[in-house]
Specification:
52% helix, 267 residues, mainly alpha
Length: 267
């Protein structure tokens, strides 16, 4: 092991949060090269701590034997969330090479009927960590690759939903403030196995996208009225015309704000 590897491993061991925050902005290929050079337990730790939508793209560029080994070494929940955002051909190849019990559970967990919320989930949406600062969050908006929405949902270290902030509010906040100090309570959360009809009845008209979680509170992504409208015969329009108009203006504002900040979409 050369001196560079020793320094990297020491820094990861002593300052894991800072380490993850640094490499979160790297390209998928560069993160993949780092994982290939590290010990399996450290590579698995990094894979599980990165944003799931980022980890999913990283493993698409890794050799399959390494990918299967890493996913077998991390928690079932993290493996499932990461495979959720990989392309189907890669996901199937990885699942075919994983432990039978684990792959069977993941296959079942990723299968939903058209009547369930999970079929319309957007797992690529940008989410935040409560420990992030405003400054690092705005940098993440620019570089992370996650889809940016007007409401940004935040999670804890176990990726459980803890609240949300509005993107436009971050622009005027002090850079050193933490996301956890700015959080608003999420008025409505939906579960991945929830029926679409129940979702629409419970919809909060102040939100264009609602957060989707597992029963234990783990954040999976968001679901939008537009996604439901495009794929079902059910009406997904807001009941209140004023809310409908406000949502449309919010979309236009977000487009302009994202352009100003320099947001990018997933590759």
């Amino acid at each position: 092991m050369n001196s560079d590897h020793i320094l990297i491993e020491q820094f990861l061991r002593n300052h894991p949060d800072i380490f993850i925050q640094i490499i979160e902005d790297w390209d998928y290929e560069d993160i993949g090269k780092l994982l290939e050079d590290l010990a399996p337990d450290q590579a698995g730790f990094i894979l599980s701590r990165l944003s799931h939508y980022k980890s999913g793209k990283v493993i698409e560029n890794l050799p399959q034997p390494l990918t299967s080994s890493l996913l077998n070494s991390i928690s079932l929940a993290d493996s499932e969330a990461i495979l959720r955002v990989t392309v189907e051909s890669v996901r199937e190849a990885i699942l075919n090479s994983m432990d039978d019990d684990k792959s069977s559970f993941i296959r079942k967990s990723l299968s939903f009927s058209k009547e369930e919320v999970g079929s319309y989930l957007d797992p690529y949406v940008l989410y935040l960590n409560g420990k992030d600062t405003v400054e690092s969050t705005l940098n993440k908006v620019k570089n992370s690759g996650g889809r940016v929405r007007s409401h940004l949902y935040a999670v804890d270290d176990h990726k459980k939903l803890i609240g949300y902030v509005q993107l436009n509010d971050l622009i005027i906040e002090k850079p050193e403030k933490t996301i956890s100090s700015l959080l608003n309570k999420v008025p409505v959360t939906v579960h991945e196995e929830m029926q679409i009809t129940d979702l629409l009845e419970a919809w909060n008209d102040a939100f264009i996208d609602l957060p989707v979680t597992k029963i234990n509170g783990e954040f999976l992504g968001t679901v939008s009225r537009e996604a439901v409208r495009k794929n079902t015969n059910l009406s997904a329009e807001p009941r209140n015309p004023a809310i409908k108009a406000g949502n449309a203006l919010g979309d236009l504002y977000l487009i302009g704000l994202s352009s100003l900040i320099g947001n990018t979409e997933p590759k």
